[in-house]
């Protein structure tokens, strides 16, 4: 099964595929208090295990979240349950991302509110969308200055490369996607990004998305594929070389890049 299949099957599989979960990651499927919610969650769990090899998948029912919502107590209970789940993960030093895709609109709003309150990234994608959208942190006026909450304990080595030599991409601009200038500026500002260069292999990353490259660079550091796309005449694919060499570095780097791209695109 390829990425195109995962994009088309459902909004949920599209989102999870773009988040590039690792085998050791925990995925919580928050289902509505309905028979169809239970059925969908169980099917999605089985599919993710079989197709993506994910093993740590847990289903959590949201009591009272159904087609006849009351005046708010069920949503309040959902908010408390979600908040406790996030705090438990943070206590175990786990990075958290909330995917507000699918389900009732009220659920998506609660995820957004709790995510903003706890400084947890909240993303969203629809079957027809070309990119993973991240909701902004309103307390930060500059998107490139907004850091995910999980970055606090991660320190990547400095590149040492002058920032004006990071971009190893031609100056031809008439085929560039409209977001390229902003994205390039954001990349140059990150001291742990060593080099950005054109790489056709990066077209295998989701459109307007990021994916871990197959190989590290010659220094043993992680690289990421970045694919920006407006249409067939305005697209670009680059490899982003970083100074990160541990799994923690990789996790922080891709979460940071994915969130920034999701806000800029």
Can you tell me about this structure?
This protein is an alpha/beta fold. 35% of the residues lie in helices and 18% in strands. The protein has helices at 3-9, 11-18, 35-52, 73-91, 105-117, 180-189, 247-264; strands spanning 27-31, 57-61, 98-99, 122-124, 133-134, 167-168, 193-198, 209-212, 223-231, 234-242. It has a five-stranded mixed sheet. The protein has a three-stranded mixed sheet with strand order 3-4-5. Strand 3 (98-99), helix 5 (105-117) and strand 4 (122-124) form a beta-alpha-beta unit. The longest helix is centred in the N-terminal third of the chain and has 19 residues, at 73-91. It is elongated, with a radius of gyration of 19 Å. The model is unreliable at 140-153 (pLDDT under 50).
Gist?
This protein is an alpha/beta fold and 265 residues long. Helix content is 35%, strand content 18%.
Shape: elongated
Which strands sit side by side, in order, in the main sheet?
6-7-10-9-8
Number of strands: 10
The level of helicity is 25-40%
Round the mean pLDDT to the nearest integer and report it: 84
What tags apply to this protein structure?
CRISPR-associated protein, 7 helices, 18% strand, SSO1393-like, alpha/beta, 265 residues, single chain, elongated
